[in-house]
Write a structure and sequence with these properties.
Rossmann fold; Peptidase_S9_cat; aminopeptidase; single chain; 9-stranded mixed β-sheet; 674 residues; 12 helices; 4-stranded antiparallel β-sheet; alpha+beta; aminopeptidase activity; 35% strand; AB_hydrolase_fold
Amino acid sequence: MIGVCLAVAMGAAGPAVSVDRVTARTVARVITPADIADLTDLADAEISPDGRHLLYVTRPGIGQRDSHSAIWIVPTDGSAPARPLTVSASLDDAPQWSPDGRTIAFLSNRPQPGVREEADRNLRPATFGPDQPIAGEPTRQLWTISLSGGEAQPLTAIGRDIRSFRWSPDGHSIALLAPDPLTAQVRADRAAKRDWVEADVPREFNRVWILDLASRGLRRIAVPDRDASDLSWSPDGKQLALRVAATAGLNDFFYRSDLVLVDAASGTVERTVFKGVYGTASWSPDGRRIVFIAPDQGNIGIRGFVADVATGATREVGATFDGTLKRLDWSRVNGTILARTIVHDRTIVSRIDVATGRFSPLIDFDGHIRDYSVADDGTIAFVGSQVDRPADAWISRRGKLRRLTDINPQMRNWRLAKVEKVRWSSSRDGKPIYGLLFTPPDAKPDVPIKTVVQPHGGPQGVWTASWQGSWTDWAQILAARGYAVLLPNPRGSEGQGSAFSRGVKDGWGIADYQDIVDGIDMLIARKVTDPARIGIGGWSYGGFMSAYAITHDTRFKTAIVGAGVTDLFNLSLGTDTPDWFAGYYGLSPASIAKMDAVSPLRAIDRAQGPVLVLHGQEDRRVPLTQGLAFYQGLRLQGKEARMVSYPREPHWIREREHQLDVQRRVLDWFDEHL
């Protein structure tokens, strides 16, 4: 567990700072890249309606491309160890309890069983008629299994991947999200390689399909010319709230999705509740209101809303909240909403009084809560990680926390970092800036050591007091090898409200960069950091900040630029999420000039230290040319640089061997140059 001591402040010798000291175990073995790659991840904490059992999913590796996954079940009172509910070599995930708690539905790409006997015809899985899966291409289908165990049974065999599903409130049907069946012409075109793609032309819409569990019949609900990406049932089962967009593209999914209400029987769209939402809605128990989140101004920040179902009238909740809303759900009480929020460097689950808008903390967990579910008695299950452990399954019952799993027991022998929550004041305007400091377990006070700064992605990302050990989270593995590692949350980050997140609009690399170097000055003043041995490295926006630092500041001796933005104007036109970037700059001549002023590629002649560029070859968020141009520009200038690109990889590196290579190169590069 994490222990937090009282804050302390520095004297006049350095920047104002407070520190929460977080305990860590002193252990023997130094962590290796293979150790990190071999960690097991946990997700999908689903508590049973009666609160007695918890389902969760385990996967090999953190952020690795899934090879297989399994569903486990554990009693919430801790009376017995967890046991596997499904056992296969396939991907079993997304478990959901039936409303009566007797059956679990889940998605799996396991092979379908053989043809059933005539007597079992009524139990055959639902299909799209003659459409069948393409040979050699397993699809994600819906399966069920009893709480008491036994063999899992398929509910569908539709030949298309099911994206998600939701039980109806009465348990008699399930709503699925899946594309339309493939036509014979589409199959022929694919086989003949007639697979060109015209930009912005809608294709492969996901539809809503209502599966009647008694007859195994499928009924299609299609919002005209819209892709459906999320859904929720009204408590009486008569309506569906859908998140829909004009295309199935990522940009429309994130930034141009609308919330609509649909009659579940006829499929008629009754109302567009809100234009531009994140996720779907959560219904009040009486079905009269829904709550949801939506992008703030310019898609920077997140806002919460309550809407009246009958009239469509909306009002904002949490407008003055000094943090970031990440999820809103109606509780079992009509007047109370549950909110998962980021505040500074931690996740807090709170109650919101609907009438007053007042927040009150509900789960006091010093770490990061990734997702949660709620039982009928109010017990909350969640996936939580802390600085000394990756994700485990937890429950909160009547204010008391219990950890139900120990997914990675091998970590007990690892040499883990000491972790501090740090705060300093901006030299620009005095704003408080928060972050985390990882140091070696045997670090001595007042003995400055080599230091790496790792900016997060985003800009609207955030470092939380959670496990920082993966292919892209380097703090633990670097600290184990003698480094201090600063994880800063400068302006632009989540955790201090939308205005703070918008603090980098029209100015990446200016105020946010100053916030970061103010943190370095704080560490130098505390005699944590050796000013002659400072490096910087990060991924995505963290890669941009690293490229900016090495081209604008001589204090950094080396940089690692992972999938980094180096030419802002080219990125604005080449990314797969242009609305994200447009929120920061737009495309006026004045905006282009501002982009050029901070683009690391435009200042490449001023780079002062060696640079390692890492990039996925299939990256569409930050295209490979961003990293390639920076690398080739450095080399043409006679600078020391190296570049490694990873085949088949998108913006995030997913293959295990590639993840291992990233970690090894990070360690070797900083060891060589610091």
